[in-house]
Every structure is written in C-alpha cells, then in structure tokens.
Specification:
- By secondary structure, this protein is an all-alpha fold.
- It has one domain.
- α1 packs antiparallel against α2, α1 packs across α4 and α3 runs antiparallel to α4.
C-alpha cells in the first residue's frame, strides 16, 4: 500500500503506542525502513496487517487515513484471492 509522508510518520508513531502483538517488530521495522528511504510504499504479510489494524488506535487524521488504507488493502487482497480461486475453479470445471 502507498502512504503519504504524514500518514507514514503517524503510523510510525502509532506503532510505539500500539499494544504488543505478534509481528509488531516487523511492522515497526518496515515503517522505519520506508521512512529512511523516503518511500511511502509498504508491504506487510496479511496476518500481520490484520493484527496491526485491529490494535491500531486512530488518534489523529493521518493515522485514521492510514488505518483506512490498511483495511482497504486487506479487503482488496481478499477480493483478489477470491477471484483467483473462482477462476481456478471455473477452469477445472471446464476441463
């Protein structure tokens, strides 16, 4: 997903306030790396992204926007996985 500089900064600060969860260090390192290379693009494993989204408290507008983007990215991944599964099932039935 792609985040603005303000959203990336807000997420980096929010991860420090977020309760502990499996994958927290991975999220923190990913956000720090994105800040260091000045890239708004981040990628997280689906399960880690879900845990982070559930625990993330949106305390300001940039954090709320970043959380919304994170939730949309998870939903998009679900839709893509469903489309691939349906296409594979359709191909198997045709054969």
């Amino acid at each position: 997903m792609v985040l603005s500089r303000a959203e990336l900064t807000a997420m980096r600060e929010a991860i420090e306030l977020t309760p502990r969860f499996t994958g927290r260090l991975e999220v923190r390192d990913t956000l720090r790396r994105a800040m260091r290379v000045r890239s708004g693009r981040i990628a997280l494993e689906r399960e880690v992204a879900e845990r982070f989204a559930r625990r993330l408290v949106a305390f300001d507008l940039p954090t709320a926007l970043a959380k919304a983007k994170l939730l949309h990215a998870i939903q998009d991944a679900d839709r893509e996985a469903l489309a691939v599964t349906e296409a594979a099932d359709g191909a198997a039935r045709a054969a």
